Amino acid sequence: MVPHFLAQPEEDGTNSETAILVNFKKKLVLIAGTSYAGEIKKSIFTVMNYLLPKQNVMPMHPSVYAKLLGEKIEKHNANIWLINTGWSGGPYGVGERMKIIYTRAMLNEALAGNLDDVDVTIDPIFGVKIPIAVNGVPTEVLVPQNTWSDKNDYTTMAKKLASMFIENFKKFEEGTAIEIIEAGPKL
């Protein structure tokens, strides 16, 4: 620990005068700019919450985050909406971006609570509820498959995506609640 050395954010690229340097090869942690004595805690926190996420590694098992999200949704009686702001009508290069006017209409209707009690259809692969109608949005845009000229191509791509999700999720199944596992895509 080097408490009297202060980093200079403009020159050193740090967010503050405190710096934590971790060298995994040398098994060395250097903490500068603080006289805080919790070196181990601070270095582990840095690795878990700053360095690992940059390498797409979460510090806790994904089921912890899924459980927390579920608890927050239940506690606050929140509705969750997945709004397509990406491609519609086919894969990249074939389809086109979802029109912003439709995205805004969906978002505005959701925020106004106008979608809370509407009729829905259930996507057979991903299990998400899709409103049958939304003010200001053509109905064919709401169900992704309906925007593709070749419905079989859509189903093939959706099943491929679901398969990739299922395969990737296998490494997280151990320790995950059954209701979370069962909420995943179905082939």
Key traits:
7 helices, single chain, 6 strands, two-stranded antiparallel ribbon, two-stranded antiparallel sheet, 187 residues, alpha+beta
Layout of secondary structure:
Layout: H1 9-12, E1 19-23, E2 28-32, H2 39-54, H3 62-75, E3 87-88, E4 96-97, H4 100-111, E5 120-122, E6 129-131, H5 139-142, H6 151-169, H7 178-182
Antiparallel strand pairs: 1-2, 3-4, 5-6
3D architecture notes:
The protein has 187 residues and is of the alpha+beta class. The chain contains seven helices and six strands. It has helices at 9-12, 39-54, 62-75, 100-111, 139-142, 151-169, 178-182; strands at residues 19-23, 28-32, 87-88, 96-97, 120-122, 129-131. It has a two-stranded antiparallel ribbon. Strands 3-4 form a two-stranded antiparallel sheet. A hairpin with a 4-residue loop joins strand 1 and strand 2. The protein starts with 8 loop residues before the first helix and ends in a 5-residue tail after the last helix. The model has no long low-confidence stretch (mean pLDDT 86).
Multimerization status: single chain
Strand order of the largest sheet: 1-2
Report Rg: 23 Å
Strand content: 5-15%
Mean pLDDT value: 86
Helix content: 25-40%
The overall strand count is: 6
3D shape: elongated
Count of alpha/pi helices: 7
Task: Give the helix/strand class.
Answer: alpha+beta
Span between termini: 54 Å
